[in-house]
Each structure stands twice: as C-alpha cells, then as structure tokens.
Amino acid sequence: MLLSICIPTYNRYYSLKNCLKSIYLSSKKTNLPFEICISDNSYSNKNLCLVNDYINKININYKKNSYNLGRTKNYIQASLMAKGEYIWLLGDDDLLLDISLNEIKNLLTTHKNVDFFYINSFNLKSPNNNLELNYSNLKSKKLKKFSQYHLSKKLRFFDLIDPKISFDFLGGMYLSIFRKKNWIQNLNALNRNHINNLIEFSSLDNTFPHTKIYAHAFNNSKAFFFSKPITINLSGTREWNYLYPLVMSYRLPELLEEYRKNGLSFFQYIYCKNFALRNFIPDTLNLLFSKKINFFNYINIYKNIIKNIFYPNFYLSILYFFLRKLFKYRLYETKKN
Description:
Layout: E1 3-9, H1 13-27, E2 34-40, H2 46-54, E3 60-64, H3 71-80, E4 86-89, E5 94-96, H4 100-110, E6 116-119, E7 122-124, H5 135-140, E8 144-145, E9 153-156, E10 176-179, H6 180-185, H7 192-195, H8 209-217, E11 222-226, E12 231-234, H9 244-261, H10 266-276, H11 280-288, H12 301-305, H13 312-336
Helix pairs in contact: 1-2, 9-10, 9-11
C-alpha cells in the first residue's frame, strides 16, 4: 500500500459524503494503491451508512469511536489505522479533483527519497456543509489558491516554513503528505495532558498537533512543494471560525517556537514570527470582547503577549487594520459610483 488517506471526522455527514464521493471519482482516473482510514467521533451512526455505500467501491477502513476522543486523538487514531507507506491527513470538508490521486501517484513514485510533500489547494468559501459536489460547477468558479508560490521544487523541510509558501506554516493538515514511519516514531512529541483537554485550541497540542509532530519527525528531511492545486478546501464549513483570531495570532507564534527548537534558523524564525503578528492587536481585541470564550483560559500573558512586544508588527498590526478598512471602504465607494 502506497498511500493512506486518513480522515478524522466529527458530526459532518454531508461534508464526509462529498469528500468520499470526490475520492471515489478521482480513484477512477488512476491505479494508485491507496486506502481510506476514517476515525469517527460523531455521536450518531449516519456515517456508517455512508461508508457502507462506498465499501465495495473503494478500500475503506472505518472506526466508530465509542465516545468523543477530541480533535488530536482523532487525528492520531486515524493515522494509526494506516497501512500505507505515506499518510495524507485529509479533512472531511476537503474535496479531491479528478486528477488528484494520479498526480499524487506521480509525485510519490518520482521522488522516492522525499519524506514530506506539501501540495497546493484551492479555497472555496461555502455557506454551509451541505454542498452537492459538481465538478463542472466547481471548475467554472474562480477559486483562489492557498499558496501563491508558483514554483514546484525539492527543498529542505524547514524551507517550507515561509509565509510566501504557507502563511499558516503548514497548519492546514490537508496540504501535507508524509512518510508514515517518521510520523509514528514521533507521536510522543505531543503533551499527553494537553491532548486530553477537550477544549478546542486551548494549547498548541490540540490546535496544530500534526505540525508539532512534523517539527520533530521531518526536521532533517527532504521535502517537495507542489504548486499545482489538486484539492478544494471548503473553509465555510468550520464550526470553530470564531476562534480564528486565536489560531492565527496566538497559536501560530507558538508553533514557530516549536520549529525553532527543532532546527528552524534564527533569522527565518524572526522573519516568520513578525509576519505572524500582523493582526495581533485587532485579533486580541476581538477575543477579549468575544462572548463565546473566556480569553484568559486560552492565553499565557508572558508567553503570548510579553514575548511578542519586541516585534514591529505587534504595534503595526493596528495600523494595518485601519488601512484594510480604508481600502475596503474606498473599494466599496468606487463600485457604488
């Protein structure tokens, strides 16, 4: 088995339905040996019926959890089900294109000495998770690329930690395909107490657990960036969008510290850290006045605020905010006239 597509899911029946349909349609265009591993935290049995519809069409390994394991443990369990040489952690809200699996086959068989592949994706803002998959409609849309970097090439793993390639520093799990052996050997990089905490995004370990493992597992690895988008990410289906400011302005700087501990160069760390703080003050105010969360349950004053005050974007973030507002206002006035 060359590839295991590992899908952790939780109460997204329609998203998973579309995801599996897209995988099935893509599988008809290739002879790639692959499997699908689904770890299901859902409280209902609807997904089991869905899996049964595809069980004779594509190779599916399905596990219904007896209770909600939480985000991180669900990721881990899906990966532990894998038999493939490579793992692709795919979100249940992601869609493959008809060319996807064949492109992946070509990548994996052509670059056998590469441990980590970072593949580009299109982004589609969907108003809900009940989107009927229609390739002709999707192809007619002007979809935005996740990464604007245009050159496919082999590079070192830490060369990927660059906002020109990935503005969230590999945070989107659906963009990475990696060697299973390295991943399994470094699962202990995660803090056990943190991953047992079911409060969403309360720490780096239950926000970006996959990236923390990457930092340990692939710090000395060859990587490959593939600029051609071969998936569609449906960003509108995320129930956690209200926590986006926390993820971007608090957890990403923490992630960069993890990369730095494992070999990211000092100057690359400083450059990326400053970039990650470009929305810091507006995001902090957003979180402080949010009625959905208790801000102080999520942050450490020293680690998340005081350590960041030496970076220019900590202060410039408020200026950027007003400049964006002004730009949108002028654009609106131009269209109105």
